[in-house]
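Table S2 (text version). Query chain:
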Amino acid sequence: MKKALLGLALALSLPFSAQASQSAGIFFGSPMSGIQYKHNDLRFSLGIDDFGVAVDKTFNLGSLANNPDLNSMYTFVGAQYVDNKHDKLGVRSGVGFQVPVNSFELYAEVGPTLYVVEDVDLELEGALGFRVRF
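Corresponding structure-token output:
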């Protein structure tokens, strides 16, 4: 419980700006499912079923490729800590697709995570979720 409170406190300690793009929601995936907060291109995930935290930097593929047809796709890179029987710390990356619906965002993503603590292990992981923009 202390780990969950610490993760939530870190996520909520970000500066809030009236002009910033912010959203919060839930996600279901592997290796964890939980809540997520996104502030501009940074996102913070807190796993509730299996405790974990992840911090990612996202990049819009439409902006990277200068192609507006790819605006609904993104790539990300970040770090993740998961405590499911063994502590695991890893570097992760991947690609995703998001669909805005009114004030909501539906998204799906997939990518590899290279765990480097306990054992060196490469796992393919994914998530489905939705966020409310505010």
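Notes on Table S2: The two ends are 28 Å apart (CA to CA). The CA atoms of residues 55 and 97 lie 18 Å apart.
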